[in-house]
Write a structure and sequence with these properties.
By secondary structure, the chain is an all-alpha fold. It has 3 helices and no strands. The protein has one domain.
Amino acid sequence: MKSIISFICKWSDKIPGGNHFFGTIFLISLFVAIFISLFGVVVLFFVAPLVLFLYLFGTRLIEGFLTWYRATVKVNQEIFKEMRISKRLGTPDYENEEFEELEKGELDEIG
């Protein structure tokens, strides 16, 4: 930043057709334009592809994540439900006839 200011002070008098004030304004606007164009290149090559990717695939990614999350929660609920039924029946294994009847009834309720 200090080098930019010293460059503007040194070269502002040497701009043809103007004085120190106009030369300073010209050089400052030149550096601002260069900065904006470099910022535009960063946006063009880094931000724009990200926005385009999210626009094209964002809804699918979000829907996929939500589907996975809901399925995971549902599986976890089923596992806990089976554990509670097993604990209630007092059997660690799932080969009990009463458990199978309960399981069939609950699965029919779920769909």
